[in-house]
Automatic annotation (TrEMBL):
Pfam families: Beta-barrel_CAF17_C. InterPro entries: CAF17_C, TrmE/GcvT-like, YgfZ/GCV_T_CS, YgfZ/GcvT. It comes from Iodidimonas gelatinilytica. One of its GO terms (biological process) is iron-sulfur cluster assembly. Residues 221-287 form the CAF17 C-terminal domain. Keywords: Transit peptide. The keyword Cell membrane does not apply. This is Glycine cleavage system protein T.
Amino acid sequence: MPTPIAACKLHNRAVLSITGPDSRDFLQGILTNTIIAAGPDRALYAALLTPQGKMLFDFFITAHEEALLFDCESSRKTNLIRRLMMYRLRAKAEITDRSDDFSLWAIPRTEHNDPVFGDLAKAGAAKAFEGGVVYCDPRDQEMGWRAILPQKATIFTDQGMEPYESLRLSRGMTDGSRDFVPEKTLALEANLDVFNGVDFSKGCYVGQELTARTKHRGKVRKRLVPIEVDGTAPQSGTAIEQDGKTVGEIRSSHKNAAIALLRMEALEGPALMADGKAVTVRHPSWLDGL
């Protein structure tokens, strides 16, 4: 029997399955990434936007057998299904909740795990695994791997959410609507461009016009960025101030680490404060590259 692999079970995620001869064409016309690129060896990160280019849902997409599997927020899966069905029209595509059949996992990079998944070193690289699929996080290879496995699979031993949350916040990876505000946060404010979540060379999709215009103008005034708080991070929605002016707000957090929606000019300005506590912006490589 194989040695169990340390991983973090993602209890806040759900699995949707989309099948049928028109499934890829239907999704290609509405989602931000090139869905036809998803295959047995490649996973994608993508989003569904409003016509005004604001975030509705984000998810990971993998191919498994005859289906495309969506790794999405569990608390919002019903709304996502409803929205996809609205756009489906007469397309021959079936949308099914498969959360009772599959479990979702995050697998951190460790001395033990790296040799097991070393062939999936590049962001988005995927392969069949234990009756499901495993893939390198398409947003950032330093996040390690994600897996969608049958509920009966026993290859992983659950380490709880803390290792994943700590890594996610240190790398500045967003966690759905815990970080972006649906129908308010723009796609590039949610970093879809730097997280490989949008293909600017593809044809039309919902929200494409404003997203492309924002990218080409090079003006993204606010972004979701990782921060560290001097003490336990305040609750979501707490204002971040600089010289007495509000320049952002706290979003998701764990202990003293958090994601904040922050004005970009505030990154290099005077000290930041939230609820009387000092705030420091972390600088993962993707943020320094902007």
